[in-house]
Amino acid sequence: MKGLAHITGGGFVDNIPRVLPENCDVIVRKGTWPVLPIFKLLSEKGSVPEDELYQVFNMGIGMTVFVPKEKSETVLKAIRNRRLKAWAIGEVIRGKGEVRVQ
Fold first, then answer.
1. What is the structure's pLDDT at 69?
2. Mapping DSSP to helix (H, G, I), strand (E, B) and coil, where does residue 2 land?
3. CA–CA distance from 83 to each of 9, 35, 66, 100 (Å)?
């Protein structure tokens, strides 16, 4: 699968499925990118539940790029060579067009 999803207002759960084939799911893996301190502050001081931080604020991820697994390191290197931050944050698996944050 190849694709891009600009993650804005609605986060992972609402935006990523728009680029998925109907028979694919995405697993977004927590801890695969550095989470900004503001999200911990919102959670602790504002009593914002973690699932809401992912849904509303997408935990700081602004764009997702979908490439074949065997090309992921090449794509990450190309992005980082342009002094941009990038991480492999999940994977596409067989499914029903859903996103799971684990």
1. 93
2. coil
3. 25, 19, 20, 29
CATH code of residue 27? 3.90.650.10
- For residue 26, the enclosing domain spans 3-101
Parts of the chain with a pLDDT under 50: none
Nearest in space to 50 (alpha carbons), one of 88, 12, 18, 19 = 12
Q: What's the total number of domains in the chain? A: 1
> How far apart are alpha carbons 5 and 45 in whole angstroms?
30
**Residue 97, φ and ψ in degrees, nearest 5:** 85, 30
Each residue's pLDDT tens digit, 86-97? 999 999 999 999
How many Å apart are CA 28 and CA 11, to the nearest integer? Answer: 12
The residue type found at 90 is G
Which residues are paired to 66 by β-bridges? 3
